[in-house]
Amino acid sequence: MDGVFFTFEGPEGAGKTTQIARLSDALLERGYSVTRTREPGGDPFGERVRALLLDRDASPIPIAELLLFAAARAQNVRTVIRPALDAGHVVLCDRFTDSTLAYQGYGRDLSPDAVRAVNTVATNGLHPRKTFLLDLPPTVGLARQSPDAQDRLDRETLDFHERVRAGFLAVAAAEPDRIVTLNAAQSEDALFAQLLAAVLPLLPQP
Ligand code: T5A
Question: Which domains does the chain have, with CATH numbers?
Answer without folding.
Answer: 4-202 (3.40.50.300)
